[in-house]
Rab-like protein 3 (Psilopogon haemacephalus), 204 residues
Amino acid sequence: LPRAVLCAFAGVGKSSLVHLLCQNQVLGNPSWTVGCSVDIRIHDYKEGTPEEKTYYIELWDVGGSVDSATSVKSTRAVFYNLLNGIILVHDLTNKKSSQNLYRWSLEALNRDVAPTGVLVTNGDYDREQFADNQIPLLVIGTKLDQIPEAKRNEVLTRTAFLAEDFNAEEINLDCTNPRYLAAGSSNAVKLSRFFDKVGQVNYF
């Protein structure tokens, strides 16, 4: 099955997001992810076109921190093998979680030079490294509802630059409200485009 890995700072709401993406329901009692948890999303490839096909996508919620010991990172590297897409998740109310996406992306893409064509040196971020990256990336910001109205424009402008750095589309939402991913919404369209790309890597 095609596989998309969710990378994020602890506590941003990955488990709630995965549940929303796969079950279209709010997760009642989210808990910390230990190691890795996997859920399945049913996706309609190129929905509404003659090429429409339905397939399953694995969503891997990888736990831990970018500051983990080398041994933990080595164990986590197993989850990055054969991935077909990366979802970078950050908490819109926590600037540090956004900044850590750079390190998460480097960790995931540096697992093997051959599949992605991306070589990361010295652990430094360089947006040019993503120019030739063939692995689809999507940036998702959570806890949109918790940002004060007066600060919302400032925060969303900053995150727009973040997504641009990764050459990726972005979605900002509240994981406790399914309407942010309602059918026909701009977020739903972005999500569908991303999963189309994830499936293309494997099937088409």
Summary: The radius of gyration is 16 Å. The helical segments are 14-23, 70-80, 95-109, 113-116, 149-165, 186-203. Strands lie at 3-8, 36-45, 53-62, 85-91, 137-142, 169-172.
